[in-house]
Amino acid sequence: MSVATASPVVRRLAGTLPLPVLAPVLATLAALGLGVGLIAATGTPVTAAILAFWDGMVGSTFGIGASINRGVALALVGLGFIFANRANLTNVGGEGQIAFGGMVATAVALRGAASLPAGLAVAVPLAAGAATGAVWGGLAGILKVKRGTNEVISTLLLTFIALLVVYWSVQSENLLRQPKTSAATLPESLELPAPTRLPTLSTDPSSPLHIGVLLAAVATVAVGVALARSALGVRLRAVGLSELASRRAGIRDGALVVLALTVAGALGGLAGAIMLQGELWVLKAGFSSGYGFDGLVVGLLSRGSAVAVVAGALFFGFLRSGGIAMEISAGVPAAVVLLIQGLIVILIAGSVILTGAGRER
Amino acid sequence: MTDEQLAVFVASSLRLSMPLILAASGEMVSERAGVLNMSLEGMMLTAAFGGALGSWATGSPGLGLLCGVGAALVVAFLQAVLSVTLRANQLVVGIGFNLLVLGATTFLYREIFGPLSREVIPGFAKWHVPLLGDLPVLGPALFQQVGLVYAGLALVVLIWALLRYTALGLAIDAVGEHPRAADQAGVWVAGVRYAGVVVAGVMAGLAGVFISVGDINTFTEGMTNGQGYLAIAAVIFGGWVGWRTLGACLLFGTATALQFQLPAMGIAIPTAGLIMLPYVLALLAVAGLVGRLSPPSALTIPYRRGVS
After folding, report:
1. Is A153 within 8 Å of B272 when comparing Cβ atoms?
2. Can you point out the beta strands (E) in B19-113?
3. Could you give the ipTM of this predicted complex?
């Protein structure tokens, strides 16, 4: 987005608002404008489409709850991303970490966790999911420290392996597939038993909003404080700027690299466990589709701010829910939302050079 | 395995490897110049749609090919502007394009063809290679394919020669390994990187057109289905070397073909393990546990003059 070509009003605003705030807003408005134009081009009444969109986002307790739940998963992955990114590490593996976290949470919930006392029946699968994500993320850290493997490449490959393991687990009755009773039995797990499901927050039975949002809030504060206010945050930044210099200063750089990716993985795994225990209740191949990459984008666009991660995650969460509603009630393909989202990502990433963040490198 | 099964297996391995071979060969050039295109998937999907639309509208698969490659080039050019000139994060831009393209092609497909359309589009005629095509068993499998297969393979060899024997090939490696040194030696870093991404775009375009117009003669939503990512994994597993990348693509394609073939032969092994194999091998290879591979030093790092 070039400010010079914008309207006079925008130019006046640009004088008063800092560009790092303005650029994402302009990018979002431009992308939404294009989306509205496309909807108009299909011949659908624009107001009807927008009303359906709005209705899907905030028109019902179901819509609001579903949007926030979606935002919770994105926020957790995004927080993990900024944590690792503080040490100049790029975790592309969120998708695989979600998938594994969800799979292991399902396995633990179906194989015994339901008979645990009330709180533990929920907490144990969540912890197991987070631990699995941590291992999968930490593995990339160990490969980086021991073998010098670029973490972008290793986390990407680890993601594909995790997605295929999940696919495998729901195809095989020896693993997690529900027993075949007829030819129509779908390749998915049994439903998670009720005691292992996350308690909902609202008394309204139509609201899917669950305690995952509280876990995400805790994670936001923890990551935000750790990065901005703790010695750990400073050490991570030091390792990110120069491993050699930090080592001379007595920082254990290798351990920090492993730790950073382990934490990122744990948050991804927790996101997967929350998705399964919170709303999905049934493990299917591809349940994580898009969440990991959306979470990565949310993390990157936040420029390392935990608050911005939450804002971006909620925005993407509401956008997707609105798109689904628009397809159902106004007949506009939800694909328009993907298009808008992609455009926002590209425009914001492309405007980095204008807003000065590109100078950090 | 009967002769007939062997012929089917060889033909389907080649058919499934072909898009990977084309896309990975182009992506290898771009990565050796230092630009990783996560948008490879998006470029392929754009071309698959553009090719299908062009072929359907004009009735000529040749014009469809031009439309498809042209459309992929638009994505590639924008990717280059963003990742080279604007120094945006290559991964994010790539993921952004994949979202954008999936949304745009799905939207346009539904608007133009209607949802759930199974519109058959004109495809390429098979080219029967004289003599070789008449060989028993493998003749039809290997030498009665659409012309795009042979033209694509010729381009792949051309790319290897370009990288190995020309000054441009040397410049590409220099820019990917040490852009500052290359710049000081008078190499136009940005120009070489643009060229790399454009090559990736053309080859991904051919791959996409092969899938829709060359192979199954229709378009379906999201039909590239992760093959762009698989091509990137093949480049990694191939260690950024031409013939090894080709080998990786053939291996990946064969593994995919085997998952259809083995059940037909009554052999029950978990097919997910088979599809997973390429990624596990690639991971072991980059971790240095099988051989020792190292990516171009400047991969994914934007270059800026005067700043160290």
Report:
1. no
2. none
3. 0.88
